[in-house]
Design goal:
- It is a single chain.
- This protein has 193 residues and is mainly beta.
- Helix content is 0%, strand content 51%.
- The chain has one domain.
- The strands form two sheets. The protein has a seven-stranded mixed barrel with strand order 4-5-6-8-9-10-11.
Length: 193
Amino acid sequence: MKTLLLTMSLACPVIVAMTACAEHTMEPAANGPSWLLADVRGAVEAEHEANAEFHEGPDHWAGIEMKFTLSSSGEDALGRWRTFRIVRYGSGRPEPGTYPLLRFDLLDPEATGTLIQFTRTEEDGMRHWTSTSGTLTITASSEERVEGRFEFTAIECGPRECAPDPTTIRVTGSFSALPHDPTAGVPVPGDGH
């Protein structure tokens, strides 16, 4: 199995693109024990299927006392890198339940709430969408695994500013994520091994 070692800091306020699909939790065999599936519609039409991982704890780099991040990254059929990121400031790993998605400044260490970001590389750079409304439903939560689903509307905005003429997307999806392992590489989806 090919592996890709990601050296992205979970503390860094980078927005990564992601997409969601089905309202119910699915378990695709192709991505093994962890996955995030997403379906994106609107200004961008995309589907996402890749491994998922979560991390909780303080973000010393950004001065945030408690933070939970669940992320999933991979390439689409055209070779564009995309990432989904669920970010929760002011609290650790969420317990089972439904949480509203709010838009807040990721660079503000006093911010609290939950949001989801989708980021995709384009020929001319990165495009970012941040949730403006929607819900995150956690169906299972432990130190070993976090599972759930989401649906949200997002506007084309990054951590500090919006695109000059921002577009909107609608995303639905589900996930089953394992804890982040800093010593392991992330399996590359679809490598056939």
